[in-house]
Every structure is written in C-alpha cells, then in structure tokens.
Specification:
Layout (H helix, E strand, L loop, with lengths): L2 H4 L13 H11 L3 E6 L2 E7 H8 L9 H4 L13 H11 L3 E6 L2 E7 H11 L1
Antiparallel strand pairs: 1-2, 3-4
C-alpha cells in the first residue's frame, strides 16, 4: 500500500503568522492534532498540540505565532512511499503525522490513525 492510498487529501494547513489561539481553534474545529505550515504554497514547518503546549511555557497564547513554535525540519514523503516505510519513519522519529508532498506542494497527510485503519482493513 502506498501513501496515496492512505493519505487524507483534505489537509488543513496554517500560515506561520497565525496566532496560537487561531491554531487551537483550528485543532478543535477540524478535530485534528497537528497541521502543516505553508507559506507561498510551500511547506515551511509543521505544528501540533505538543508544540503549542511547549510554546505556552514561554509566552502568551494570543501573542505567540505559529512561527514561534513550529518544527521547521519537516519530514515528508512522496505519494509513492510505502505504508510500511511511513510507519517505520513515524516510530523512529516519534512523530504522529507526515505530510505527503509532490512538486514542493502538500497533496495529503498520513497520520498514525491512517496507518492503524489500513492495517485493520487489511485483516
């Protein structure tokens, strides 16, 4: 199975200048725990609930922006990456989501939940 078969193509993204209060609202509204950070159509980072919580130790949720807390070294995969390799990357890097990128554009996202669902459906 490939990333293109697993990934969610309705990817919620954010901009580096968005405040953390906006991001928390997006997490709740879309029932997600993280999202790619995109600027001028290119992925520049990723932000998750843990990043927001760490940021709150140093500043105010209304003053901090995504840029202040996002992970800049984003691990991505292509649509042809195998599900097995994606799962290995998640375990090795201790991450819960991996953006799927094609031609420098986010085309999807694979989460641990997507991997678990695929395994359950395969039997």
């Amino acid at each position: 199975m490939k990333a293109v078969e697993l990934m969610n193509t309705n990817v919620v993204t954010c901009h580096p200048s968005e405040t953390l209060i906006v991001i928390v609202n997006k997490f709740e509204l879309f029932n997600i725990a993280g999202m790619p950070v995109v600027e001028k159509g290119k992925i520049v980072g990723i932000v998750c609930q843990t990043d927001v919580l760490k940021g709150l130790k140093t500043g105010n949720i209304q003053e901090l922006s995504v840029r202040d807390v996002m992970v800049k070294d984003v691990i991505t995969v292509t649509p042809t990456e195998s599900a097995e390799n994606i799962a290995k990357i998640m375990v090795e890097k201790r991450i819960n989501r991996i953006p799927v990128v094609e031609n420098d554009t986010v085309v999807g996202i694979v989460t641990r939940g997507d991997i678990i669902k695929a395994v359950a459906e395969c039997g």
